[in-house]
Amino acid sequence: MIDLCTGNGVVPLLLATRTRADIWGVEIQERLADMAVRNALINGLEHRLHMIQGDLKTIHQTLGHGQFDALTVNPPYLPVPNGEQNVNEHYAAARHEIHCTLEDVIAASAKLVKAGGKVAMVHRATRLIDICCLMRKYRLEPKRIRYVHARAGEEAMMVLIEGMKDGKPEIRTLPPLIVYDENQEYCKELKEIYYGGRASLEFSAEATE
């Protein structure tokens, strides 16, 4: 498995509680990539979590074409000209398409997964059409979509989408994920994901800054 735009490595850490597969994490920012390495070490997972500082646009030259069964990615959401960029360069790079565009992310994903491999992405719901069009352009057939709503009755803010390399055209829309329940607490599903997976994990002091 491989996680692009891995940041401090939280997604590979959570995945490690659910699979025995080896997991690679790719992060272009040196400070965040260093955190990811340290978080793997802190949790004794350095033998399974391989954190790399690198550019996702060229990482296939190092890791090879079609080497992965599954890929996850939480890319920057905003095109550079839109929105107010954060004055902190690290946050700006995480939020805006400074180092990579949405097309860069999808093109890189298509190179890394094998035929039948799956690409799972979280992005803003407003970019769904762009995502689907680009996935098809790079032979990643959209297969499953799930909208994420902050609260019941509110517009979807995020979308979870999974594509399959060289998959047949057919898409399923899953039940929506409602983040907060009527008590303004995380829903049961998210509590299991966050607290069930993270309960046994430790993070470097800088990881939450």
Automatic annotation (TrEMBL):
Coiled coil regions, renumbered to chain? none
Would you say which domain of life the source belongs to? Answer: Bacteria
Q: What Pfam families does the entry give?
A: UPF0020
Q: Which UniProt keywords apply?
A: Methyltransferase, Transferase
Domain (Ribosomal RNA large subunit methyltransferase K/L-like methyltransferase) ranges: 17-104
For molecular function, the Gene Ontology terms on record are: methyltransferase activity
In its UniProt record, which GO terms are filed under biological process?
A: methylation
Query: What PANTHER family does the database record attribute to this sequence?
Result: TRNA1(VAL) (ADENINE(37)-N6)-METHYLTRANSFERASE
**Protein name in the entry:** Methyltransferase
Q: What is the lineage of its organism?
A: Bacteria, Bacillati, Bacillota, Bacilli, Bacillales
